[in-house]
Write a structure and sequence with these properties.
Blueprint lengths: L2 E6 L6 H11 L6 E6 L4 H12 L2 E8 L2 E7 L4
Parallel strand pairs: 1-2
Antiparallel strand pairs: 2-4, 3-4
């Protein structure tokens, strides 16, 4: 397991989800991906995408203007 980060700030739907999808393709199962976003739509979009694709959202946190989504990679 390893920790990875993705900066998807200032991107609007659907780009944060697309960038998340592209990044996860390069990761191994059980890796952790932290996605930094500013588009409020990711609060619904990323969890929905993760559920469909077998990944687990560990947390959604807020820090100033950032929305920070932590994902545990499932089997890709």
């Amino acid at each position: 397991m390893s920790l990875h980060e993705l900066d998807a700030r200032r991107l609007i739907c659907p780009m944060p989800v697309i960038r998340t999808q592209d990044k996860i393709k390069a990761l191994a199962p059980a890796d952790i991906l932290i996605v930094y976003c500013t588009d409020p739509g990711v609060k619904q979009d990323i969890p929905a995408w993760c559920e469909i694709n077998g990944h687990e959202v560990l947390s959604i946190e807020y820090e100033a203007r950032d929305i920070i989504v932590t994902i545990k990679v499932g089997h890709t």
